[in-house]
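#data-curation
PF: Archiving a pair of folding outputs for the training set. Convention for this channel: one message per protein, sequence first, structure tokens after, nothing in between. First:
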Amino acid sequence: MDFVAVRFALLDAAGELATPITGWSKKECHAALKQSFDDWLADFGIGNREKYQVIIRVRDFIQKYGLSRFQPYTYGKLNGNIDTVNAMRINHLAGYLVHNRRDDGQVEYHIIPSVFEEEILQGLQKKSGFEALEEAGMLIKAEKDRFISKTISLNGTQGRFVVLIFNDED
């Protein structure tokens, strides 16, 4: 928010300096910038926009790719009941859609950490992104300070994933 306020203050100063060119009075310039700032504030609020962006990116990623990038996996079954010979051929696997792991029946998305960082966060701060997802009730952590969890096992190897739940009603 402070960063944005500084930008608007700079625009106000620039507008004031440009009054001989624009023909506006200083009062008109201030009023226009105040209206722009108020509009921006109404659209984005005073919260951390980056945290909001990561939630939107996760939801968009899951909605966009669904089963095309997530291999279905049934928890409690050998290799997740994946038929490794005839399994779906998934190009650019993003992770696993895990069933039967939660008591409430909700599916979990176990996302490969590099996919999460490179394709979802895309340059956003990792720690604040994880914190935003945790605050939104979307991140499932195995341990207090660990955002990446050892979860499902494939061919005897336990993988590390970012574990998320997704509710499109949120």
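PF: Second:
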Amino acid sequence: MGEGDAMHLTEHGLRPAGRGGFMHHELDELRRTMALEVVRRFTPREIRAQILANLHRWRRQGVWGAAYKEWQDIAEGLDDGELFAAMLGRDENAVRLRQSAPFVGLLPKEQVRKLNEEAAG
């Protein structure tokens, strides 16, 4: 148990939550690992193109959120540092943005599967 870990209240007292999936920090670390793999394989220009293509498609499909506008601004900008900070940062803003990461589709499915398996232990 660590600070911030989920607990369940039962008739026998407080117990750690079951491990049915990833904890929040584990899930973000997986997202960050996937983002790092994207950064290793693609240029900022290629990443921006994928981000904008996904955002365009999602908007057309009626799927849009505030984080997508932030990603759009980042992708339309020329600051690679801002792009990498959003993709790889450990601050609250980067963690929040990675929850709506629009650079999906760049990694091969086999690589995504491998990263998921490694994260699951």
